[in-house]
């Protein structure tokens, strides 16, 4: 009877620990969702106020609201790591204020086990957030930038997976790869794979011009690596040129403003751009940094949440929500600064980007786990 009673007791203890894990995870999820939604709405409100300063006759208040609404998924994705930290601090911290964490520890759950339970709840939300960052935010951001530039300048621009489409008089221009490059700290836009459809009238296609690249020298556009197909009723005439002037009303500042920055692209788009840049011997540092930042996004979230846990277990009832919010904002802000500095150093000095991007998160997580284990 003794061994049987021990087995029952052991099973009951396991069930109790699992129940505690679910409770901690659920509390973390609710706290994160509350903070995440609040911060996203706050960011959108600030964005609306900033955009309202740039309103013109073509870009009115309704356009501002539509633009900010389209950029909402990107803002939600960007603010989630800090929201996860602050939300877990608030949610699990409320259990500490009610002495529930003390009761859980008496039941046999270590601080590290409770922290891992909170992190597991965070990862449940991280999966759909990453889906937003991969499939929703990039396309919405591209459409939003194209829409805003079109309204401000009065020139039709359409963004999409096939690059940027621009109405240029009777011509339709497709810039398939608008690339961001860096030279001595200065960033500029480099246009690759351009295709121009020249129309003479309604649906009368006269010529198709394809170019490997295009640049603006301050006065006019020049196309390089040009292939032209002239179309007439009698024949189709091909022509190849090393370079040729491009008389166009497309304004460089218009196109640059509409280009989606690498940090807003999906992992798939970044991988495609990296393959293109590497195969053509072009500078890929900015895109490589953005790629690894996206890939290691979950690691940054795990590190931030784990780093916040010692403050939860070390707090008492006198540490209110305001204190935990302060800890969350301070820790999140410092981490983001260090993380950004590590990426910039890797880009500037050609260091291993993956290692530089992962290092701050890895060090922060090791420190947090060590503190939790020693205080268990």
Topology diagram in text:
Elements lengths: L1 H51 L8 H37 L2 H7 L4 H43 L3 E4 L2 E6 L2 E13 L2 E16 L2 E13 L4 E11 L4 E11 L5 H7 L8 H13 L5 H11 L1 H18 L6 H29 L3 H22 L2
Antiparallel strand pairs: 1-2, 2-3, 3-4, 4-5, 5-6, 6-7
Helix pairs in contact: 1-2, 1-4, 2-4, 2-8, 2-9, 4-5, 4-8, 6-7, 7-10, 8-9, 8-10, 9-10
Give an account of the 3D structure:
This protein has helices spanning 2-52, 61-97, 100-106, 111-153, 252-258, 267-279, 285-295, 297-314, 321-349, 353-374, and strands spanning 157-160, 163-168, 171-183, 186-201, 204-216, 221-231, 236-246. With 376 residues, it is α+β, with helices and mostly antiparallel strands. It has two domains: 2-151 and 285-374, no CATH class; 170-248, no CATH class. A seven-stranded antiparallel sheet has the order 1-2-3-4-5-6-7. A hairpin with a 2-residue loop joins strand 4 and strand 5 (204-216). Helix 2 (61-97) packs across helix 8 and helix 8 packs parallel to helix 10 (353-374). The protein starts with a helix and ends with a helix. The model is unreliable at 3-8 (pLDDT under 50).
Descriptive key words:
single chain; alpha+beta; 7 strands; elongated; 7-stranded antiparallel beta sheet; 2 domains; 376 residues; 10 helices
């Amino acid at each position: 009877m003794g061994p049987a009673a021990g087995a029952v007791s052991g099973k009951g203890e396991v069930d109790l620990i699992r129940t505690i894990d679910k409770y901690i995870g659920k509390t973390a999820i609710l706290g994160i969702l509350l903070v995440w939604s609040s911060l996203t709405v706050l960011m959108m409100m600030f964005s609306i106020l900033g955009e309202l300063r740039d309103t013109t006759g073509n870009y009115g208040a309704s356009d501002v609201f539509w633009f900010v609404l389209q950029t909402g998924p990107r803002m939600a994705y960007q603010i989630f790591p800090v929201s996860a930290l602050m939300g877990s601090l608030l949610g699990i911290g409320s259990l500490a204020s009610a002495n529930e964490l003390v009761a859980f520890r008496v039941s046999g759950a270590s601080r590290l086990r409770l922290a891992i339970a909170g992190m597991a709840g965070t990862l449940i939300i991280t999966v759909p957030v990453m889906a937003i960052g991969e499939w929703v935010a990039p396309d919405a951001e591209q459409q939003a930038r194209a829409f805003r530039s079109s309204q401000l300048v009065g020139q039709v621009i359409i963004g999409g997976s096939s690059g940027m489409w621009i109405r240029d008089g009777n011509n339709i221009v497709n810039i398939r790869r608008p690339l961001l490059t860096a030279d001595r700290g200065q960033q500029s836009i480099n246009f690759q794979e351009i295709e121009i459809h020249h129309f003479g009238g309604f649906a009368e296609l006269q010529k198709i011009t394809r170019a490997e690249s295009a640049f603006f020298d301050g006065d006019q556009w020049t196309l390089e690596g040009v292939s032209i197909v002239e179309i007439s009723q009698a024949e189709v005439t091909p022509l190849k040129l090393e370079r040729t002037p491009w008389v166009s009303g497309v304004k460089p500042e218009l196109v640059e403003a509409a280009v989606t920055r690498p940090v807003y692209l999906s992992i798939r788009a970044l991988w495609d751009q990296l393959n293109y840049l590497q195969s053509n011997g072009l500078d890929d540092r900015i895109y490589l940094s953005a790629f690894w930042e996206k890939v290691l996004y979950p690691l940054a979230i795990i590190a931030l949440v784990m780093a916040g846990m010692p403050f939860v277990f070390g707090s008492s009832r006198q540490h209110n929500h305001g204190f935990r919010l302060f800890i969350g904002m301070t820790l999140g802000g410092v981490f983001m600064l260090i993380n950004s500095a590590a990426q910039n150093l890797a880009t500037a000095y050609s260091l291993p980007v993956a290692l530089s991007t992962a290092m701050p998160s890895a060090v922060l997580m090791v420190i947090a786990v060590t503190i939790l284990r020693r205080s268990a």
